[in-house]
Write a structure and sequence with these properties.
Blueprint: H1 3-23, E1 43-46, E2 56-61, E3 64-65, E4 80-84, E5 88-95, E6 102-106, E7 110-116, E8 121-127, E9 132-137, E10 149-155
Parallel strand pairs: 2-5, 4-10
Antiparallel strand pairs: 1-8, 2-3, 5-8, 6-7, 6-9, 9-10
Length: 156
């Protein structure tokens, strides 16, 4: 297969995934009267892959985020984190894959995300100031990229 043919197929696959994400409503646009420009900063610190009290633990590996492949992602995003507006969200994300990097980002709250080399772990902390449903996603391409889709639900 030619290089240009492979690129065309890859581009079509990415377009299909993005269309699915937007059409199915996984992506949530904040209400017009909310301001995402005033989101608090996200604190990111190096960590170990142990869940301290009060933290959500997300493991990235060849089964996605917390075994998201076997939970039906991307059709059924996994994991799903439920918090209330005003809560402090605390997440430990770690890469237990021994062969490749994975990414971790949250729509609106942490779009810059982090890249986790094999064995890396980070603590991510921020205030949930905007209610809605937000996509948790891998922000770099990897072999299980399409299955690394979760949700953050912030209830008002």
């Amino acid at each position: 297969m030619s290089h240009s043919r492979r690129l065309a197929i890859a581009g079509a696959a990415v377009a299909a995934i993005l269309t699915f994400v937007f059409v199915t409503g996984i992506v949530s646009i904040p209400p017009p009267n909310s301001s995402t420009n005033n989101l608090p900063l996200v604190s990111v610190t190096s960590s170990t892959c142990k869940r301290p009290p009060g933290y959500f633990l997300i493991i990235a590996d060849l089964s996605g985020f917390n075994d998201s492949i076997n939970h039906g992602a991307p059709l059924n995003p996994w994991p799903v984190i439920h918090v209330h507006e005003g809560d402090t969200v605390r997440i430990v994300v770690c890469n237990e894959d021994t062969s490749q990097a994975h990414g971790f980002a949250i729509q609106t709250y942490f779009d810059a995300g982090v890249i986790l080399a094999p064995g890396d772990a980070y603590r991510i902390v921020f205030a949930a100031t905007v209610p809605g449903t937000f996509v948790i996603y891998c922000n770099i391409f990897c072999t299980v990229h399409a299955f690394m889709v979760g949700r953050l639900i912030v209830s008002s």
